[in-house]
TrEMBL record:
GO terms for molecular function: glucose-6-phosphate dehydrogenase activity. This is Glucose-6-phosphate 1-dehydrogenase. Pfam families: G6PD_C, G6PD_N. The keyword ATP-binding does not apply. Coiled coil: none annotated. It is an enzyme of class 1 (oxidoreductase). Substrate binds at H172, K176, E210, D229, K320, K325. InterPro entries: G6P_DH (IPR001282), G6P_DH_AS (IPR019796), G6P_DH_C (IPR022675), G6P_DH_NAD-bd (IPR022674), NAD(P)-bd_dom_sf (IPR036291). The active site is at H234. NADP(+) binds at D89, V90, K142.
Length: 472
């Protein structure tokens, strides 16, 4: 089903424009859209702080500068000219009466809720009572619930006043260049497409490592943990794009249909194949409960029970306070026959395909070659591509998602059925989380994460810009 109303939005209303996400991401994305002449509507900021428009514009300039962007005054002045501001209590009716008076009835607004999830339903219900939803779209930041039951409850509340095609569930990983590019790399290249199945792939690893801790987010993070924070959403969405069949068409739901098929083919996760870790010193962070059992690291095994992937084990790991900041997908190909003409036949390493999502997105093909200098021995040969070098400066995730939201491109957003399926998949781990293993900051997590792979390929040292390839 395509959008019932695919008209571009002619007004962007940002709830929470004075918050942390706006400071870190949104203002920069808006500035970059303005610089590309891809922004052509007014922007109305809504928040609880009683500040002037001039103060908001100053905050926007500071945020853009702090993000590392070089500010062109002419571009910023155009962006500033689009801004207006309305403050008030988002849980009270007075704000929405003022909003309705400000917006009128002739616009197609995009309401972007950069707010705590507990406020999603109250805000949407108030927008509905004010008569502001008929021609609108509403974008919501994750998390979408904290388990399967709460996700279903939230979806039910939203659907009282919104159609599914009006709801845009934001997962910024879906806006990252290599994630967007993945379906084209897979299906436009026969050399890759013919290898992308259980006949060629022996196992699949996904790593999302962060080289920093929880820092000043202790209170938020302690109620969430790594499984909810990055696995249920970011990494399962990436895995679906890695594993899905080719979409049947370019429509909004075509790609989401294929992702949903992958999720339905994933059995619920087994707590016996799940490792939780917590870095030493985590419980000393302000906002974290003493004696907290919240995980800052997870590793798990899963499978996809369909024709393409049956029998291929999939290993995911994600954590904070690890040695590097890097996210990658790594496919191990099966071994070639050890033919008699090959010297030292058993030493040939299987090929690997690596998609690096962060930093410096790129793709690596690892081959085996015979080095005959000073005696024959096998060496890895890497064929590397940097997407930035080959394709130019990428559009940043929030820049892409804001533009997609304004034009109603729902391919970039998560759909209701996929959200509920991913919660179904991880629910057993929420119900039976198991013990917590301590690990040292700067290590690759607890030893139990390595034991999880016994009998399979070990975790690999991630492919970093300018780095070679060795095991952990």
């Amino acid at each position: 089903m395509n959008n019932r109303d695919s008209s571009p939005s002619d007004l962007l209303v940002i709830f929470g424009i004075t918050g942390d996400l706006a400071r870190k991401m949104t203002f920069r994305a808006l500035y970059r859209l303005e610089r590309r002449n891809a922004l052509d509507c007014p922007i109305l900021g809504v928040a609880g702080r009683d500040i002037t428009l001039e103060a908001l514009i100053a905050r926007a300039r500071d945020a853009i500068s702090e993000s590392g962007e070089s500010i062109d005054d002419a571009v910023f002045d155009r962006l500033a000219g689009r801004l207006s501001y309305l403050h008030g209590d988002v849980t009270g009716s007075a704000l929405y009466a003022s909003l309705a008076e400000r917006i009128g009835t002739d616009r197609n607004p995009l309401f972007y809720l950069e707010m705590p999830p507990s406020l999603f339903a109250p805000i949407v219900e108030n927008l509905g009572r004010a008569g502001l939803l008929e021609r609108s779209r509403v974008a919501l930041e994750k998390p979408f619930g904290h388990d399967l039951a709460s996700a279903r409850e939230l979806n039910a509340q939203l659907h009282v006043v919104l159609r599914e095609d009006q709801i845009l569930r934001v997962d910024h990983f879906l806006g990252k260049q290599p994630v967007v590019e993945l379906e084209y790399l897979r299906f436009a290249n026969l050399a890759i497409a013919e290898l992308w199945n259980r006949r060629s792939v022996s196992e699949l690893h996904i790593t999302m490592a962060e080289d920093f801790g929880v820092e000043d987010r202790g209170k938020f993070y302690d109620a969430v943990g790594a499984l909810r924070d990055v696995v249920q959403n970011h990494l399962l969405q990436v895995l679906a794009l890695v594993a899905m069949e080719p979409p049947v068409g370019p429509g909004d739901d075509d790609i989401n249909d294929k992702k949903a098929e992958v999720f339905r083919a994933m059995p619920a996760l087994d707590p016996a194949h799940y490792v939780r870790g917590q870095y030493r010193g985590y419980t000393d962070i302000p906002g974290v409960s003493k004696g907290s059992r919240t995980e800052t690291f997870v590793a798990l095994r899963m499978e996809i029970e369909n024709w393409r992937w049956a029998g291929v084990p999939i290993f995911l790991r994600a954590g904070k306070a690890l040695p590097e900041k890097v996210t990658e997908v790594r496919l191990f190909l099966r071994r070639t026959p050890a033919l008699a003409f090959m010297p030292n036949r058993g030493a040939v390493e299987p090929n690997q395909i690596v998609l690096r999502i962060d930093p410096d997105p790129g793709m690596r093909l690892q081959l085996a070659a015979l080095d005959t200098r000073g005696g024959a021995r096998w060496r890895d040969v890497h064929l590397d591509s940097s997407l930035a070098q080959d394709l130019g400066e990428p559009i940043r995730p929030y820049e892409r998602l804001l533009q997609g939201g304004l034009i109603g491109d729902r391919r970039l957003f998560a759909r209701e059925d996929s959200i509920e399926e991913t919660w179904r998949i991880v629910q057993p781990l929420l119900d039976s989380p198991g013990e917590i293993h301590p690990y040292e900051p700067g290590s690759w997590g607890p030893e139990a994460a390595h034991s999880l792979l016994r009998g399979h390929r070990s975790w690999q040292q991630p492919w970093l810009p300018g780095a070679g390839h060795v095991r952990d």
